[in-house]
User: Fold these one by one.
Assistant:
Number 1:
Amino acid sequence: MQKWIQRLANLSAIGMFLILAMGALVTKADAGRGCGDEWPLCHGKFIPAHTISSFIEYSHRLVVGIVTMILVATFYLVFRYVKRRDAKFFITATVVMTLIQAAMGALAVVWPQSSLVLALHFGLSLLAFAFSLLLALVFTPWGQFVRTTQIHTSFKVIVWFTAIYSYIVVYLGAFVRHTVSSGGCSGWPLCNGEVIPELSGATGIVFTHRIAALLLFVCILFLYLQARRYYQPTDKLWFGSKWALILVSLQVISGAVVTWSLGNEVAYLFTGMIHAIIVACMFGFLCYLCVLTLYDRKA
């Protein structure tokens, strides 16, 4: 039974990853209204018309439905056969976040929502993925969170601050997409050929996100340097910090590529999805570090 639970946990994490990536595609392709203002039907049908936008939107809905059923099965088995409280918390949080984002997605179709609310939809998907990833890790050697050495209090503060701040940066990125502001800054690293452009409209939104992303890179770099200072290369804290730094570096690069691909629709969609995927992986590592700090050995 343990192997089945592990397989379902892995499928849940993979499924949440697909939902997040497909959600980013829906936004980038402006396919959110691909099924009109109907839910769960698509233009009054269970099988929609063969248009690109309806196919993208309906595929996203279908994957959400399948993953939700997998989550329900995983939820039952974890509470029935797994004794670890953290596993029960992770699956519960995943199910709750998935249901909330599904409800928000349905409401966004039936009743138009503001960009502020729509951006939160991606944030909830990110949290659902992070919790599902942590659940999958529970059944691996990386899920043995209990430590034999104490974690410095200052390092704990840095980890949690960075994780929370990264969520804010991700939200700003989602807000850029939902307000269709990506073209506010042409060129990278300069914005419209200026170091500090006129901070209004789409330009102000994009430039704010760029500055926030730069500060996030600095935070994770500092986190990694502190991990190297206090812990050995074999320590999970050192490993997680290293990969968070690698991924935030790739995030910055992919953000630049997204800007450079403006004007090429196919390249813009592809690079936008890659950017969202890298962000999800980075946030997952930061959440993993947060969980490690909760299992600190007491002095």
Number 2:
Amino acid sequence: MSTSSSVTAAAAFVWLGMVLAISFLEAPLKFRAPGVTVRLGLRIGRIVFRALNVAEVLLLVAAAVSVAVSVSGAGAPGPVLVPVVALAVLLAAQLLVLRPRLNRRSDRVLAGEDLPRSREHLVYVAAEVVKVGLLVALGVGALSGAG
């Protein structure tokens, strides 16, 4: 396995672990903890997801650079090139479209409005599910030697 494949796989699986731990474990559980109100949970969530998003961008850069290095040496490795490009598009959509909408909504909740569950939240969760699949595909593709 090449160094670029190792870096790609490591970035994919570290990122995957972070998404699973935060999006699918921490985020829903914090609202079940005694004493955690919706407002407090939203404030905590903003901090946690801001940190996650910074880490995601750094891991995407690491994966993209390692894939680019492998592409420049051996041609376009589809099993890693397609997922890394799809992850870049998906993360950009989350950061530039979905997160700002969710932040505006949470601003309203923090200001005291009582709002129903949002569609944007469900879209964000769906995007996280897709992201998990793409990260698995990227990591497996890299381990198979394509990256």
Number 3:
Amino acid sequence: MSTESGKRRRKADGSPTRAQDPEGTKRNILEIASEEFALNGLSGARVDEIAARTRSSKRMIYYYFGDKEGLYLSALENAYRLVREGEAKLDIEGLPPIAALSRLVEFTFDHHHRHEEFIRMVMIENIHHGQYLDRSEMIRDLNVTAIDHIARIYARGVREGFFREGIDPVELHWQVSALCFFNVSNRATFSKIFGRDFGAEDQLERLRCNSVEMVVRFVTRSENLGE
């Protein structure tokens, strides 16, 4: 059997692998699978099509991910991982609370705009009533870190006298997510109904600024709003 780099081999148990970079192959599968699931949903996506678009085979996909539902759950976990990793990289600990919260909203808006497949996969998972997400301890852990992040910003703002008391960090996260999510999930229908391109650069910039202002005004004490 040839050992040439990149050619497919078989393990002793008959399962396929790659001579090099199995993690790269898995990342490639997840990237393409995310696109397919976001476009066609869990029932409409085809493993044959995913295999055809990747440097893998259907057998290899099943080896790595078990079955189609396992692949879907892994793609969903990867989508959440990407957004949470982006949040973790934000350099906002040294910023004043209002600036830190503003930066978090800006990041969320920009991430959702650049990763529309994440929004579509979340919409699909809601169609399934969160039943696959419920199987994932990873996603629960990832979202705990998201709440911890926004809770620290909010607590610091309250402590320093900028933010009003009594806001639940989970509900604050809900409001941020809602504003940024709707920008992607309902862009097409709003554009058609109101005859305005909500995906245009100038429109997106206004929506981004409005989202930041709405969240900041929601949490900031009235005497700190500068009015």
Number 4:
Amino acid sequence: MSIGRKVAVITGASQGIGAALVEAYLERGYSVVGTSRSIAPSSNPNLLTIAGDIGDPATGRRVVDEALARFGRIDTLVNNAGIFLAAPFADHTADQYAQVLSTNVNGFFFTTQAAIEAMEKQGSGHVVSITTTLVEHPTAKVPSVLASLSKGGIAAASRSLAIEYATRGIRVNTVSPGIIKTPLHPVETHEFLSALHPVGHMGEIEDIVGAILYLENAPFVTGETLHVDGGQYAGF
């Protein structure tokens, strides 16, 4: 157990934004628990990695329990794991629907429930979840009903949680990205994806990391959706 270090739990931590968040929190002196299906074991005493499907209701509870056993506390949960499937609404299959709801909604619900239970006992904590600006500003160029259904639910639930736990020392916020350069987007799609933003380019992983770290250090901010989307929310 690392006495005196704050602890961050990060889902979807094996690549992209999640992996960058792991490094950012470690650099700031946190102990970190990272989870994803394919995350590699860690030899760093301040980094605990846990492989598992976050859509399984048992995984979130296991991640929180192992975090508490190893480090003794949880100060921050970043719900970063998510699936985005762009397809016409009528073309989505039942399996796709189940997959998106499992990862996006189950992953948020059961992990957040377990983490907030631990945070309430210690009298403090912060939950921040990744949503998408498509929830509030859809575009015909990117059919996104499943994203809006799942991530929109997370945004609404986060505001509700922020109010429910406002007097108990727990803050709950969301970050709403535009399209970010991650391994999910092949280089050949970048020109098209860049044009979906008023600023004319995609976001960088560092933009999202910076937004989450801002919220980490903003004790008077809760129930907020921070748009990091190159102007998409303002209109295009």
